[in-house]
Amino acid sequence: MILLQAGYLLSFLFIKGSIQLVVCIITGNKDDLYRAIKRLCNVQNPVPSQVINVRTISTQYAKLRSIAQKILLQINCKLGGELWGVDIPLKQLMVIGIDVYHDPSRGKRSVVGFVASINPIVTRWYSRVVFQTPHQEIIDSLKVCLVAALQKFHEVNHHLPEKIVIYRDGVSDGQLKIVESYEIPQLEKCFEAFNNYNPKIVVFVVQKQISTNIYSSVGQQLLSPPPGTVLDHTATSQDWVDFYLIAHYSPQGCGIPTHYVCVRNTANLAPDHMQRLTFKLCHLYWNWPGTIRVPAPCKYAHKLAFLSGHILHHEPSIELCEKLFFL
């Protein structure tokens, strides 16, 4: 361990080119210092970083073992570790998560977070960030990201994926037709960059801001349904193949599901297979030892877009694209 004053960290990184990780322990709520460290390590001198507030490790002694374990697991991920996986029967598969963050401090410009799996068991991730001007179409950014992800997938596996499943967050009901009739055809044009390549694709729009709640009747009580509960009838759309999924555990109150709308399915996945795949992907978020509300690539894309738009105000270095540096 090397103790450095904040002003010497940049010089140290320039000198020590083989650094694998920077761990900074800071005092107090120093947002400016946190931002400076993240910009330095994610943009200027690309190296994974872990910032720890001294209060976290000095005031909760009873929880210190648990806190240390969580920090070490995060560090493991940032160094390229794969903490756990799930069995996904689909072979030669790429899974993609897309989310958009709107930066209010910079004229509401959009930041697109894009995360794609690049190995057969869906435990290695490739990420890209694109900053957009207020009037630029998001599809321009997505095309750049998709081509780069496919090239990386081929580099790792020596072949391209036969199936691509995309989870697109941040789309309202009124934009579904635009995604179906304009965005997806534009994405499919990316495949022309590769010889004789025409993969099957499945595209889901992920909607969290919904008014639907789901209850489970147990005796005389209405309780939150268990994780894995699916509603695919009665409350669903007549125009789309869609379903509601409660993937996470709600300790009290009603179960707030996530709504998934399938806007393209050239792979001909059956609804049951769509639901099972989506639920399995909710187990792969390595910042939490359980299921989360949305598939892991969606959550990773959200974390990436937020870090880039809210903290960095800049695209991260491309040298970090194969590590979960944004956890």
Automatic annotation (TrEMBL):
Q: Name one Pfam family in it.
A: Piwi
Domain annotation Piwi: ranges: 21-313
The signal peptide here is: 1-24
Please give the Gene Ontology molecular function terms for this protein: nucleic acid binding
Query: Which PANTHER family has this protein been placed in?
Result: EUKARYOTIC TRANSLATION INITIATION FACTOR 2C
Q: Which SMART domains match?
A: Piwi
Query: What's the source species for this entry?
Result: Pantherophis guttatus (Corn snake)
Query: Superkingdom of this entry's organism?
Result: Eukaryota
| Lineage, broadest ranks | Eukaryota, Metazoa, Chordata, Craniata, Vertebrata
Keyword terms, alphabetized: Signal
- This one is known as Piwi-like protein 2
